Amino acid sequence: MKNSSLQPLSLAAITLRILLGLVVFPHGAQKLFGWFGGYGFTGTMQYFTGTVGLPWIIGFLVIMLESIGAIALIAGLGTRAIAAAYIILAVGIVFTSHVQHGFFSNWFGNQKGEGFEYFLLWIGMALALLMIGGGQYAVERIIKTSK
Questions:
Q1: pTM for this one?
Q2: Using CA atoms in the order 100, 104, 105, 111, what is the torsion angle rounded to 10 degrees?
């Protein structure tokens, strides 16, 4: 396979990595730092463990995956592992918090909650990254080729 044949897939991979990372990171920043109106690490952990009833390790992993994981994804470090974890996380979020509100996002405020359409896009992007990897413009690729 010629190197030029990898370029379109690599451009797709970097596009998917950056966009998915940029969409997920603000949610992680809310949970970890309290940015964008979030509750920060302590408040989020209290919510996850007290209100939702998650084990502390799951709450911690969610916070790290959505914040540090998003940055790693953008850089192309651990792309397939993060993509797989994002699929699991998104499916969990859908079935615990969104499926009961139907498909559509609550654009007009006339639903009791948000639907799951956003998470289908998230899952689709993560599935594509799971299949194609981070591409030639990923840190993991640079590390691999420098050995």
A1: 0.89
A2: -60
What are the backbone dihedrals phi and psi of residue 65, each rounded to the nearest 5 degrees, phi first?
-65, -40
2-5 contacts at long range (C-beta below 8 A, 24 or more positions apart): 3/136
Q: Minimal CA–CA distance to 42: which of 33, 51, 29?
A: 33
- pLDDT one-digit tens code per residue, 108-118: 888 898 989 99
Q: What is the pLDDT of residue 58?
A: 97
Contact 23, 122 (CB under 8 A): yes
Q: Which residues of the chain fall below pLDDT 50?
A: 1
The distance from CA 26 to its chain's CA centroid, rounded to whole angstroms, is 10
1's tokens: 């396979």
